[in-house]
Design goal:
Layout: H1 14-23, H2 34-53, H3 72-88, H4 116-122, H5 126-135
Amino acid sequence: MKNHFHMLVSVRSEELQEELFQKVDLNSNKLRSPSRHLSNFFNSYTLSINKQEDRVGSLFQRPFRRKEVSTDSYFRRLVIYIHQNPVKHRFVSNIEGYPYSSYHFYFREGESFLNKNKVLQLFDGIEKFRAAHVEMLEDFDQYPEEA
């Protein structure tokens, strides 16, 4: 969207991360927090845009908020909230009309940066995923609270 975005990130368990470190030759074998990875991502993105646009300074305004998602039901609600956000802000009248959403990727075949299987399992399949988005058209005034 023009003035903000939402990102839902699932973090692997420390055990799985350790296992991956054993299999892959990385520059570092030190586990880093998800916050550190996101910070590195946003910093490198800012540097790239600043170089491209011959500018300096921050691209992102405060507040940058993050919240741990500790239940599957809250995760499902956030997926729907994020997909419905362009409708809430009246960029489009329905989520199918917003081309910059991850919603569309769940209906496409092939590889994706999304863990589609994990998300669709939480919804019990693609049809229930679609139905849940239709059922939850209520206007969210804020992030849905954890159940």
